[in-house]
């Protein structure tokens, strides 16, 4: 039996993890808009944040205390894949797709998928640590393959199917995601075993439930980090939900009706993930050179550009397409310098006994509270400025106003973060001697 190198195996794990997400995350809005659910798009993205408030924490606690993380990863992918497939079958058989049944099936699926992002990190960090690797140096090149998987899934749903019914506008994107989830459920069981840390009988209730990760809020630096992670998390799902419908809406304007970018929004947006693959490689250097504050501040400034350039651009090659392209390029910094670096920072600042719980807490603040607040706010703003029945030109101006509002918010967060957050540490892993009994790194 061929035994593949550990880094190859972890790279494939990340490829599948994010391909599952990429199959629908950026194209679902187009599918919903094409089936009379345009005004409900925000709920499908907000629910990812709502379930992330509690599911990653619960699953992380179970993985820390009772069930090995690689087995929990497999179980969650199995349940998520089955319900995503059920959502696809519902859409295939329904004459008119109703919000309630589709939303229910979709919600159960993402409730089990969202914890897998943190579990995927825990499985990878555990395997690399066991192999004597420095996670700050070894993980980013592995994580790149997650982004490559996301890109491959995006391009697949963009071009698969007949021209009049591409996967990016149909329920086949749900089937694609479901298939990849079931494949991932099997593959996760081949990963190196992750330890569990059962609380002693004499331990406190917090120890028994694995809630010590919340003690990180007692450390001022970590409390501020998690709070700003929530503020930055507000931006995470906005372009995922609305960039595709926005770019596609240019088709209704005669001057842009034949623009390739307007007809292939998912392919254009995939440039964002291409940028990620390059930016991930910069993370070890930037963390060591600038620390977590510098890296997160770069991310916040990049979010300002991401939204602002979307508002100013258009899909015409000789017009404003370059702004869309530049917006996609800066997305790599906006997303990776926050999401990947934040996960590494949490790993560095906590001891092995609570790392799965701590990763779950990071997910709560970012993809949970932050993304929920941000998506629901964005839905209200878009529904206010982009009005059904208005002329395409009027709605274009409404879209532009929305993007500038989002950019303004990101700018305010960046200024506040620069003034408030203090951290002088650079990259690297904490040693056991640096960790206090509450699970926090002593500084």
Computed Rg: 21 Å
What letter string, H or E per element, gives the SSE order? Answer: HHHHHHHHHHHHHHHH
User: Might you state the CATH topology name?
Assistant: Growth Hormone, Chain: A
Helix content: over 70%
Rough outline: globular
Number of DSSP helical runs: 16
Characterize the largest beta sheet: strand count, sense, and whether it forms a barrel.
none
Average pLDDT reading: 85
Strand percentage: under 5%
- CATH architectural group: Up-down Bundle
> What do we call the CATH homologous superfamily?
MFS general substrate transporter like domains
Gap from first CA to last CA: 47 Å
Structure described in brief:
Helices cover 71% and strands 0% of the residues. The chain has helices at 6-22, 28-33, 41-52, 55-65, 69-93, 99-130, 135-159, 172-188, 205-209, 220-233, 238-248, 260-263, 265-312, 321-349, 355-385, 392-420. The longest helix is centred in the middle third of the chain and has 48 residues, at 265-312.
């Amino acid at each position: 039996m061929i035994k593949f190198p550990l880094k190859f195996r972890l790279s494939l794990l990340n490829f599948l993890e994010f391909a599952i997400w990429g199959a629908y995350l950026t194209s679902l809005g187009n599918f919903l808009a094409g089936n009379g659910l345009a005004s409900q798009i925000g709920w499908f993205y907000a629910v990812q944040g709502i379930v992330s408030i509690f599911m990653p924490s619960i699953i992380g606690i179970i993985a820390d205390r009772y069930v090995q993380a690689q087995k929990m990863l497999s179980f969650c992918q199995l349940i998520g894949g089955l319900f995503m497939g059920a959502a696809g079958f519902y859409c295939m058989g329904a004459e008119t797709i109703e919000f309630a049944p589709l939303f229910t099936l979709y919600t159960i699926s993402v409730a089990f998928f969202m914890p897998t992002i943190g579990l995927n990190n825990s499985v990878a960090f555990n395997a690399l640590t066991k192999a004597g690797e420095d996670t700050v140096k070894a993980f980013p090149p592995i994580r790149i393959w997650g982004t490559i998987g996301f890109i491959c899934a995006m391009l697949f749903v963009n071009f698969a199917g007949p021209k009049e019914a591409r996967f990016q506008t149909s329920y086949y994107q749900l089937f694609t995601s479901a298939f990849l989830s079931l494949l991932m459920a099997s593959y996760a069981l081949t990963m190196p075993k992750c330890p569990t840390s059962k609380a002693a009988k004499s331990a406190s209730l917090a120890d028994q439930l694995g809630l010590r990760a919340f003690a990180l809020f007692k450390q001022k630096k970590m409390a501020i980090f998690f709070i700003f992670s929530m503020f930055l998390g507000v931006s995470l799902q906005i372009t995922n939900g609305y960039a595709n419908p926005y770019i596609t809406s240019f088709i209704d304007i005669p001057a842009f009706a034949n623009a390739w970018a307007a007809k292939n929004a998912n392919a254009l947006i995939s440039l964002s993930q291409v940028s990620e693959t390059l930016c991930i490689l910069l993370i070890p250097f930037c963390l060591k050179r600038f620390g977590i504050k510098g890296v997160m501040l770069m991310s916040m400034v990049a979010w300002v550009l991401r939204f602002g350039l979307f508002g100013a651009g258009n899909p015409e090659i000789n017009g404003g397409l370059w702004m869309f392209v530049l917006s996609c390029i800066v997305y790599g910094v906006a997303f990776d310098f926050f999401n990947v670096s934040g996960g590494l920072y949490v790993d560095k600042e906590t001891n092995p006994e609570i790392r799965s719980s701590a990763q779950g807490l990071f997910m709560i603040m970012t993809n949970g509270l932050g993304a929920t607040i941000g998506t629901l706010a964005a839905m209200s703003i878009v529904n206010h400025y982009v009005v059904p029945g208005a002329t395409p030109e009027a709605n274009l101006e409404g879209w532009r106003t929305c993007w500038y509002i989002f950019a303004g918010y990101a700018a305010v967060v960046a200024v506040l973060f620069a003034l408030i957050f203090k951290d002088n540490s650079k990259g690297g892993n904490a040693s056991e001697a640096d960790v206090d009994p509450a699970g926090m790194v002593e500084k």
